[in-house]
Amino acid sequence: MKEVIGNSSVDFCKVIELDKHHHANGNLTVVENQSPIPFDIKRIYYLYDIPGGESRGGHAHRSLQQLLVAISGSFDVVLDDGTNQRRVTLNRPYQGLLIVPGIWRVLDNFSSGAVCLCIASDHYDEDDYIRDYQSFLDSRK
Length: 141
Ligand code: TYD
Prior knowledge:
Elements: E1 14-17, E2 19-23, E3 26-30, E4 43-47, E5 56-61, E6 66-72, E7 75-80, E8 85-90, E9 95-99, E10 104-108, E11 115-120, E12 129-130, H1 133-139
Antiparallel strand pairs: 1-9, 2-3, 4-11, 5-10, 5-12, 6-9, 6-11, 7-8, 7-10
The structure holds thymidine-5'-diphosphate (TYD).
């Protein structure tokens, strides 16, 4: 079984302002490897058509780093390091929430039409997930 990388804190998760190009004919935002995110991008996926009142996430990652962006609409991310919790609202397509490894996260409060872009540091690997909250707390001891 993989170890959780680092003894991370919710304070290591931060909202990053993304490069944005405002023009009269519309806006454009760019994310590149290492800029402004601290990892190379291996995978991108997105959540959409989320029914009202539903939540997503409910797990931690052992080594995966992610940047979450509300490219449309809004949602909240509840971050939990086993000791402290923080709720972050994402509602701007030019802001991304960096989530470091070892953080339990729940995504909720999705607006109608919300799209969550997930930019990830690695390919999908179920062994990287901790899906049981008590196992997560045990991993933090
Ligand atoms: P999960 O990461 O638990 O979704 P969320 O955190 O958004 O609630 O993934 C949901 C399902 O999709 C799960 O069965 C695994 C699968 N999945 C893939 O096959 N590939 C992927 O890249 C991801 C992120 C999920």
